[in-house]
Amino acid sequence: MLVANEGNLEAARQLAADFPHVSTVCLGGESRQGSVAAGLAQAGDWEWVAVLDGARPCTTPNLVERGLEAARQAGAAVAAVPAMDTIKMVGKDGFVESTPPRHRLWLAQTPQVFRRDILAHAHLHATSDATDDASLVEALGYRVKVYMGSYDNIKVTTEEDLTVAEAILRLRRET
Fold it and tell me: Which end of the chain is more exposed for a tag (fewer CB within 10 A), N or C?
């Protein structure tokens, strides 16, 4: 299923025509969270749901498959990579408040894979906007399994990111 905003819905339908494994294109919501909820409403009786960001064009089928394998263990799984940088917690005044131990920090990615009923329950009971679906599931007390993502599964949010993603995809085509 491909979920798109109103401005991109027709383009999404045209794109989906080139991918036989995309059976449904539906209108998303006002936010990422609303779009996932809209997709869940169309998921019917699917047992498993993998949420992928359109902003992560370098996701591979293997990453999705490994996510499903991890989710089968716990009902919920998130791709992530260990943080390589030191991370600072900074207050509103611009001063460092703390430095969490890096060995415990992972950078969440998509795909995030869930039993559909768990994710639907999390969306139904969401009390605030979340930056990812795993956070909603965690807020209800479910345990979320982390599985190794990929450092080249980058999120494209800047022009520089787009340049890097294009290079990654070009290298993959060449090999």
Answer: C
Q: Which residue has the tokens 């294109």?
A: 25
Burial classification of residue 153, based on how many CB atoms lie within 10 Å of its CB (0-12 exposed, 13-18 middle, 19 or more buried): buried
Q: Which domains does the chain have, with CATH numbers?
A: 46-174 (3.90.550.10)
* Chain segment 118-130, per-residue pLDDT in tens: 999 999 998 888 8
Cα torsion 93, 99, 100, 102 to 10°: value is 130
Condensed to tens digits (0 to 9), the pLDDT of residues 45-69 reads 899 999 999 899 999 999 999 999 9
Tell me how far apart the alpha carbons of residues 150 and 63 are, in angstroms, rounded to a whole number.
8
Identity (one letter) of the amino acid at 136? L
Q: Which residues of the chain have a pLDDT value below 70?
A: none
Burial class (CB in 10 A: 0-12, 13-18, 19+), 53: middle
pTM of this prediction exceeds 0.85? yes
For residues 100 and 87, is the Cβ–Cβ distance under 8 A?
yes
